[in-house]
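Section 3.1: Structural characterization of target chains.
Under the original work plan, the team committed to producing a structural model for every single-chain target entering the pipeline before any wet-lab resources were allocated. The record below documents one such target. The sequence was received from the expression subgroup and is listed exactly as submitted; it comprises 208 residues.
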Amino acid sequence: MHIAIAGNIGSGKTTLTTMLAKRYNWIPQFEPVDNNPYLDDFYDDMTRWSFNLQIYFLNKRFRDVVAISKSNDTIIQDRTIFEDACIFAPNLHSMGMMSDRDFDNYTDLFNLMMSLVKLPDLLIYIRSGIPNLVSHIQKRGREFEKSIRIDYLQGLNTLYENWISTYKGNLMIVDGDRLHFKENPQDFKEITDMIDDRLYGLFPLDVK
């Protein structure tokens, strides 16, 4: 089974992925951040490095999703391939940080990959407002994230909401502003109760 965690930068995806993997004995698959050769350059000059970064992520996540499709284990994934193409690349393009030529090339490649990719069995979306995202980003203190612009985060949030409003798969929404699942065990239990209802309730997910 393929469980995926979606959400903006700083929404708590990695934390929730780690906690749920431990709670359910699922295999976690994390977003490639620490060893990403483009992130530092990207945040220094988004226009120059946007296409390189998005192609890097697309390549990595396509490899991941192919491996997930061949696995018999339950894997929980930190961010999906769909977020790159439906949110991050369009946001860069709309802000003028990715050219029409590069965006069209990227989109053609993504559409080709989609012929081999299916939706996760369950998508968990962490919905968070900008103040909460900024607070989380500041607390974790990654050097390359110090230059993230508020308008960049806001554009991502708008695209996330548009994407989620039309999402066709099995979807669960977590209120990241209200549920402090890292600090509060009761908040985390509220999330796992929702997951248990989806997986083991009277009307569990139809997993094919």
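The first helix runs from residue 13 to 24.
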